[in-house]
Design a protein that fits this description.
The chain is of the alpha+beta class. The chain is 42% helix and 20% strand. It has one domain. The radius of gyration is 35 Å and the shape is rod-shaped.
Amino acid sequence: MNEKGTEFTHRPVRTGAMTLLITAVLICLAVLAVLALATAQADLAMADRALSGLQSQAQMESAGQEALAAMDAYLKGKQEAPAETVFQEDGTLETVVTLEDSTLQIVAEPKVPQPDSPAAYRILAWRLSADWEPDQTLDLWKGM
């Protein structure tokens, strides 16, 4: 009972289009992986710079608080005037604290201590500044 018309014939599987699609998808995934890695490295570098800046700012703030404590002790008559304190003509006291590449300028006005605020000064200015150099590593177009 073998009839030639009812035989099952196997068709070959054509994988050309599917191979191209899978290759394109893999190339896109590889490009996205490289971009994700580059972005992660840039984020890490920026976070390190931010951490360094915050640490130096915290050191300056700490040194400023120590200078204010010394100024307060002087105004209350507990110790001599700090060496870095300059007496201005208008009656204010100015202290400049310098650490590494940062400078903190504190200007305070003496006052009589009150029960709600036991400090013998009132801060008029608290200026934190740092040396800054622009990034010159990029070769930007300057125009024609």
